[in-house]
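Researcher: I'd like a structural prediction for the single chain below. Treat it as a standalone chain; there are no partners to consider.
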Amino acid sequence: EAKAVLDRLTGGASMKEGSVTVKLPAIAENGSTVPITVIVASPMSEADHVKAIHIVSEENPNAEVASFHFSPRSGKAEVATRIRLAKTQTVLAVAVMNDGSIYIARTPVTVTVGGCGNQDG
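Model: Treating it as a single chain, here is the predicted structure.
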């Protein structure tokens, strides 16, 4: 399901590594409330800015975790929130730029007690 969600969110465009930094604990003791911060390197000017950040999980029952939308007036492309993870998996953060380019970062996280009622391990 994660691939289908990514294709829908990005229009199936190719994605490249870089520009996206994800801060996520390597081990989450409680999958119900996992802190995540996503930062995208961008000047956030009219000519060069982030339009959206999408967070996608590979193993959750619903792969689309969150989407955040930006404009140059946002000042910076950074989000911090808590997400629910069902089990150990890779979390994907995707940044869609105003020129149509798309950047992705993949971050593995080990979940000891799943946030959707599952136990992993």
